[in-house]
Amino acid sequence: MRLDKLLANMGYGSRKEMKKLLKSGAVIVEGTPAKEGKMQIDPFKEEVTVNGEKIIYREFIYVLLNKPPGVISATEDRQHETVIDLLPVELSVFDPFPVGRLDKDTEGLLLLTNDGQLSHQLLSPKKHVPKTYFATIEGEVTSEDAEAFKKGVMLDDGYVTKPADLVIIKSGTVSEIELTIMEGKFHQVKRMFQSVGKEVTYLKRLSMGSLKLDPSLGLGEFRELTPHELEQLQNGE
Ligand code: URA
């Protein structure tokens, strides 16, 4: 690949900044200063350093975000802040996108990546990847609701949901639950509760497949996946 493309992918600034960097002699390929952006290199075989720092090339990034409310699950928006706007340029230069969507007011686990294959694997309805949510519900959630969700409920558009697992943590005028669903219809959790006459007042995603929300991440914070987390996700565990 071209040296300037590699540097751009690794977050070393705009084309203009990169030209300056190359001209200054700060970029060394296999021990020799490289001044031409069009130079062809193999980033997996040749050693490239910038200001003495070795570049570890990678094609894909995988970022676990604790999505805050008020931010939308998109790559671009004219009006609202997006989940990508939360990332520093070192990560956003990889052009990541959210794997699925959380509503604007929903919090919690959102995977951001530029790996289309993994994204497809996680979102494909055929793969039945479980997603677990914590929710606060206006109204008393009962074991009848859990039974109904296990059988499948009809949403406002006539769609009947696949079996879902409802765990009641606290039942009262305001209830707390965890719900695991194997699909991802638009506003699914909110609409499932609507179908039994109740309203979701707070929603947070806790997990997607084997990937769990890291409790050390505050709202709006993120980190890259560990090699173990990535391996488990890729293996469909
Ligand atoms: N279900 C919803 O209703 N909203 C979300 O953001 C995710 C699942």
Summarize the SSE layout with pairings.
Elements: H1 3-9, H2 15-23, E1 27-29, E2 32-33, E3 48-50, E4 53-54, E5 62-67, H3 89-92, E6 97-98, E7 107-113, H4 116-123, E8 131-138, H5 143-151, E9 165-170, E10 174-181, H6 188-195, E11 199-208, E12 211-212, E13 222-224, H7 227-234
Parallel strand pairs: 7-11
Antiparallel strand pairs: 1-2, 1-3, 3-4, 5-7, 5-13, 6-7, 8-10, 8-11, 9-10, 11-12
This protein binds uracil.
The major β-sheet equals: 9 strands, mixed
Output the CATH class name of the largest domain: Alpha Beta
CATH superfamily label of the largest domain? Pseudouridine synthase I, catalytic domain, N-terminal subdomain
Count of domain modules:
3
> Got a strand count?
13
CATH architecture of the largest domain: 2-Layer Sandwich
> What gross morphology would you assign?
elongated
Q: Which runs of at least 5 residues are low in confidence (pLDDT < 50)?
A: none
Number of helices: 7
Structural class: alpha+beta
Rounded to an integer in angstroms, the radius of gyration calculated over CA atoms is: 22 Å
Q: Kindly, what is the distance between the CA atoms of the first and last residues, rounded to a whole number of angstroms?
A: 34 Å
State the share of residues found in helices, binned by percent. Answer: 10-25%
SSE ordering: HHEEEEEHEEHEHEEHEEEH
> Mean of residue pLDDT?
95
